[in-house]
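Collaborator request log, item 7. Partner lab (contact: R.S.) asked for a structural prediction of 5-formyltetrahydrofolate cyclo-ligase to inform their binding assays.
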Amino acid sequence: MTVPSPYLDKPSLRAAALARRAGLDPLGRAAASARAASHALAWLGPVEGEVVALFASIGTEIDTAPLAAGLRAGGARLALPVVADPKAPLVFRLWSAEVPLVEVPGPGRLVIPVPPEEAPVVVPDVLVVPLAAYDPSGHRLGYGGGYYDRTLAALRRARRVEALGYAFAVQELPCLPAEPHDERLDAVVTDAGIITVTAED
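Returned to partner:
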């Protein structure tokens, strides 16, 4: 497999990582999602009473359902992100297991499942972050909208929050370009294990 050059532009790197992700077969994808959930639960430790913000998997994204089940079993309160304003940080609504999600327009042509409007807005203790690609230094390449960078910056100004990248191991690239506004992850969890990010000098 050709390794993309770290000197490529972000759209090219994103496309390369997403092609790898799309190439996973359905059975392998399901097994990898279950392994990643096990790694994430081990890294997080006791979660009773904590608010953990997940994302509802779309398309070829890693399946967050096994992780959600494990977190609920551990007593965590789950939330999902909602785009309130395309230029503002995400908000998070409490995700109760017994309440059906509703589909709303997301960025671009995406349709995103979210909790209903009457669900309480909460502030997460842990943010499980989707991504197109990541590198071992905790840099993340998203889908181009900047939502999670804005959200993490706002949350980190107010309090301590753990940001956990969640993806398949095939989405790792050797090095991603980092800009001043890019928010690093605290760890990345994949089907291959856990990458704990150390602080940069």
